[in-house]
Design brief:
Chain B: One of its GO terms (molecular function) is oxidoreductase activity. The complex is a heterodimer. Chain A has 19 helices and 28 strands. By secondary structure, chain A is α+β, with helices and mostly antiparallel strands. In chain A, helix 9 (376-394) packs parallel to helix 18 (749-768), helix 15 packs across helix 16 and helix 17 packs across helix 18. Chain B is built from five helices and five strands; from the N terminus they run E-E-H-E-E-E-H-H-H-H.
Chain lengths: 795, 160
């Protein structure tokens, strides 16, 4: 289909902005229903304890209290389900202990919900919750994944030996990798922690549930990334209510970053309770609650080794990771450190032998699940840290070392895709191109000169590289199923042409900042040749659209956008038949362009709006054609998409304090074709900011008792405006060969690429001053960097 | 306790609990839900409104403390439907994504521009320090403020 009005590739200003900048956004907590009640959860202050008693007597007498429920009240209800199954190496299924909606006599992490109090106002609910008396018998606590698997470690779930959810491996047989390592001239080894992060969307999680007694139907407003997924899980797997009797609405959502992709216990408790009390019940997390109850991200302990021959060609990669899954399995939890991590170990390189071995471990901490990038940042961090460190150790240039090992360019059409050692088939790539562009933007040779001069003057300048690839556009359902997904990962797009030619589009994708209302409208405007003002994009309501898998894994445009394109194709196809009848021509002789159906080679034409009206007022109409112009398509992608890029950081490290100043950040990203460059650049900015956040500022810190010691915005350091220079961004475009838009996905790329670039730059700066440090634990605070510099200097 | 306030030009008298926070008064009593709660502890800035023309984090102020005050919220920035030049800047420069932190930033920076009509990039970044945005990486927020500053420099008055 031709691009008819230049809408694709244009930085159209966002149509959704007006409501947000005028305070008219409608987030879940903004919704007040008639007879609204409010909930407050009593949560465990201990990381691991038996509950020996719950005394509700005083709480029940508090003003405004409507109902109080404990674990006993919901014991008969299923627990929170997990959406992805990972198997042990020996084929056994992973350990999947029940995740009760409210604690079942035992609490397993600080923040585990025990009691819900429902009252007339939020303040009264909180007042009463404070009067709930819970008796705890404290149990020993285990926090660290690598410690948790040791014999004698406390058990988070009595029926999970050694706290091991699964041990899993991918790639070439370990014996082959060991053999290749034996032959290596140099092995770079890195033992490191990829620290736990908290996603921290600024909108806290919020739910509002009500039960319509007359129609026996539940409605849940929820700050979610995936309304239909929540409906499926909540109706069928948790509460056992018919799917058509549960409506899920995800209104405006104030950021998600993966943490709102999960199905949460609070959603189920509120929905269940709304029927019991026969009134709507709302809960919005306080920030201190968000910190201990929203799913966290990352938290790996890893040993990685990369073997090289004498020329610097990679021979093998061997990885052992302990992945902390938290106390319970998140919706995607088991998949993140396996199928979204191990599968990325090829990186951009031709490494012939790879083995990645992951042990997923339960601990007395908040559940760990997807956080922006989800597994792919961890893989990229590992590979790209190894590459820069190997270059330093071998005295080679890090850019040249990469060039030597890159998979050569391939477009996936004339050249086949690249089959990795770790299950994936890359679609198309030009990895040299992004690095070359990045080096040019940096002015590499000049920088190295400047760095040398600076070192002589005692200033520590460093440059760090990261050339990343990711797998997104989740996902081909059959492949995802083979990898353990318990759902298909297609997307739905319905295009409803109204009788006047205006268009409503219903998508199963969900926007929480990504600008779908604009980008998707651009696609429709372009394909149908109509103005954006004539198009409305509707998302987030399970009663409005057929189905949807939601938004995560940078999938909305590649999968959801394509589903819309498929429906548009059907619209045009049918439109041709209608137009042919009106024009007394053969449908095969018609072409559609610029919003008009024209008989080829003639000036006989009919407008799109006219055809739409004919479809709905079919007085002159083909006898064998149904009236109406409305199509729904489900698109199941043929493959993942594989964006890639090159991120480069330049830092100066202050010698006396260890303070890191980020001087420049260059991001060259190849996300395939671009529909709206402004929005893509915005996604990259935000992603890069979060990735730099991990490198320099952020990290969830548990003490040995399992207390999250920095569970406030005061203590959990997120980057602010004055922490960054202007990011220097550029694109290379290598279209995706297997979707009609040629798009790959841009939501996570920035986060995936940026973290190792910054850490590598700091390490490089330290080496330039003779401090041959292999690793500094993230975040690279002044103290940690300063301590690293106190090691003896090698001149 | 009884309070009298003027919010976005309209006078109100209400009986409120002494413990009611200003942000909850605005959201729950006046249904002005454009002002958001992000952190409850005045760190994120999403709840910022102007109290007597001064940017104020309304999650850390009691409603009773606002007795007798004039309050401007994001809903009052474009009273006649004509966008404030900074609102326009946010739209033009893609200064927002999920939009949750945006109203608070607008309330701080509209005031900032009144007193600092020609800020440098560094000035703007410093002025934004009281706000957290998790979506944008701040770059386009800085550009949005620069857009507004440039428009103001061309002799356009800053309203409100």
């Amino acid at each position: 289909m031709s691009t008819t009005n230049g809408m694709i590739g244009k930085s159209v200003k966002r149509v959704e902005d007006k409501r947000f900048i005028t305070g008219k956004g409608r987030y879940t907590d903004d919704i007040v229903l008639p007879l609204q009640t409010h909930a407050s959860f009593v949560r465990s202050p201990y990381a691991h304890a038996n509950i020996s008693g719950i005394d509700l007597e005083v709480a029940k007498t508090m003003p405004g209290v409507i109902a109080i429920y404990t674990g006993a009240d919901v014991a008969a209800i299923n627990g929170v389900p997990c959406g992805w199954q990972v198997n042990f190496k020996n084929g056994d299924t992973m350990k999947e202990p029940k995740h009760p909606l409210l604690a079942d006599g035992k609490v397993r992490h600080v923040g585990d919900p025990i009691v819900v109090v429902i009252a007339e106002t939020a303040a009264l609910a909180k007042d009463a919750a404070q009067m709930v008396m819970v008796d705890y018998e404290e149990l020993p606590v285990v926090i660290n994944a690598a410690e948790a698997v040791k014999t004698g470690a406390p058990l988070v779930h009595e029926d999970v030996p050694n706290n091991i959810c699964y041990d899993w491996a991918l790639g070439n047989p370990i014996a082959e990798v060991d053999q290749a390592m034996e032959e290596a001239a140099h092995i770079t080894t890195l033992e490191f922690v990829n620290q736990r992060l908290v996603a921290n969307p600024i909108e806290p999680r919020s739910y509002n549930a009500f039960y319509d007694e007359a129609n026996e139907k539940y409605t849940l407003y929820t700050s979610t990334q995936s309304p239909h997924l929540i409906r499926l899980l909540l109706s069928t797997f948790v509460l056992g209510i018919p799917e058509h009797k549960l409506r899920i609405v995800g209104p405006d959502v104030g950021g998600g970053f993966g943490s709102k992709g999960d199905h949460y216990a609070e959603e189920a408790v509120l929905t269940w309770a709304s029927k019991n009390i026969n009134r709507p019940v709302k809960w919005t997390a306080e920030r201190s609650e968000s910190f201990i109850s929203d799913v966290h991200g990352r938290d790996h302990v890893t040993k990685a080794e990369m073997g090289f021959d004498a020329e610097g060609k990679i021979l093998a990669l061997r990885v052992k990771t302990y992945a902390n899954l938290g106390a319970y399995l998140g919706t995607f939890g088991p998949a993140v450190p396996t199928y979204l991590y191990g599968t990325l170990m090829q990186g951009l390189y031709t490494t012939p032998k790879i083995n990645v071995d992951v042990t997923g471990v339960f601990t007395n901490t908040t559940t760990v699940d997807a956080y922006r990038g989800a597994g792919r940042p961890e893989a990229t961090y590992l590979l790209e840290r190894l590459m820069d460190l190997a270059a330093l150790e071998m005295g080679k240039d890090p850019a040249a070392l990469r060039m030597k090992n890159f998979v050569p360019p391939f477009d996936g059409v004339n050249q086949p895709g690249y089959q990795t050692q770790v299950a994936l088939l890359y679609d198309s790539g030009n990895y040299q191109g992004v690095l070359e562009k990045g080096l040019k933007m940096l002015g590499y040779e000049d920088f190295r000169r400047k760095q040398l001069e600076s070192a002589q003057n005692g200033t520590l300048l460093g440059v760090g590289f990261s050339t990343y690839i990711e797998a997104c556009g989740l996902a081909p359902s059959a492949l995802a199923g083979a990898l353990g997904a318990r759902a298909g990962l297609y997307e739905m797009g319905q295009v409803r042409v109204q009788p006047t030619g205006k268009v409503s589009v219903y998508t199963g994708s969900h926007a929480h900042g990504q600008g779908h209302e604009t980008t998707f409208a651009q696609i429709v405007a372009s394909k149908l040749g109509i103005p954006i003002a004539d198009i409305e994009i509707v998302h987030g309501d399970s009663d409005s659209m057929a189905f949807g898998m939601g938004t995560y894994g940078s999938r909305s445009l590649a999968v959801g956008g394509t589903a819309i394109v498929k429906s548009i194709e059907k619209i045009i196809e049918k439109g041709k038949k209608i137009a042919a009848h009106r024009l007394e021509a053969n449908a095969d002789d018609l072409e559609f362009d610029q919003g008009k159906f024209t008989v080829k080679g003639t000036d006989k034409s009919i407008s799109f709006g006219d055809v739409a009206l004919t479809a709905y007022v079919p007085h002159i109409y083909p006898a064998d054609l149904e009236p109406g112009l409305d199509f729904t398509s489900f698109y199941d992608p043929a493959n993942f998409t594989y964006p890639f890029g090159c991120h480069i950081a330049v830092v100066e490290v202050e010698k006396d304090t260890g303070k890191v100043a980020l001087q420049r950040f260059i991001a060259v990203d190849d996300v395939g074709n671009i529909i709206n460059p402004m929005i893509v650049e915005g996604q990259i900015h935000g992603g890069v900011a979060q990735g730099i956040g991990q490198a320099l500022f952020e990290g969830a810190e548990y003490d040995s008792n399992g207390q999250l010691t920095n569970a406030t915005y005061m203590d959990y350091c997120m980057p602010r405006a004055d922490d960054f220079p202007m990011f220097e961004t550029a694109n290379q475009i290598t279209p995706c060969p297997h979707n009609p838009l040629g798009v790959k996905g841009a939501g996570e790329a920035g986060t995936i690429g940026s973290t190792p670039a910054v850490v590598n730059a700091v390490i490089n700066a330290l080496w330039s001053g003779g401090h041959q440090v292999k690793d500094i634990r993230m975040p690279l605070t002044s103290e940690r960097v300063w301590r690293a510099m106190q090691a003896p200097v090698n001149e | 306790m009884q309070i009298r306030v003027k919010v976005n030009g309209i006078d109100y008298i209400h009986e409120v609990e002494p413990r009611l926070l200003l942000v909850h008064y605005l959201r729950d009593v006046l249904h002005l839900t454009g002002t958001h709660v992000g952190c409850d502890t005045s760190i994120c800035g999403a709840c910022t409104v102007q109290v007597n023309s001064k940017p104020t984090k309304s999650c850390t102020m009691f409603a009773v403390q606002a007795d007798g005050c004039e309050i401007l919220t994001v809903e009052g920035l474009a009273p006649n439907g004509e966008l404030h030049v900074l609102q326009e800047g946010f739209k033009e420069m893609h200064g927002l994504q999920c939009g949750f932190c945006t109203p608070g930033i607008l309330m701080t920076m509209t005031d900032y521009l009144k007193h600092n009509p020609e800020p440098s990039e560094e000035d703007i970044r410093h002025a934004l320090k009281g706000h957290l945005c998790r979506c944008t990486g701040y770059q386009n927020i800085v550009k949005s403020v620069q857009y507004a500053a440039a428009k103001i420099a061309n002799k356009e008055e800053v309203p409100a």
